[in-house]
Amino acid sequence: MHIETETKNYGAIRCQWGDTDDELMREYHDTQWGKPCFDELKLNEETWI
Fold first, then answer.
1. What is the pLDDT of residues 24-46, one digit of tens each?
2. Which CA distances in Å does 49 have to 19, 24, 25, 43, 44?
3. Among 15, 18, 32, 33, which is least packed, fewest CB within 10 Å?
């Protein structure tokens, strides 16, 4: 089940797993999760990690 919650930070919408007290998870959710990537080297790196 996918639940989104509105946060106090600039009215951003975060998934339930991204709306946490863990600063690293919030940063990852807000800066990387769901962002398109068109760099072939980065895509290859992400695929193998």
1. 999 999 888 888 889 999 889 88
2. 24, 18, 18, 10, 9
3. 32
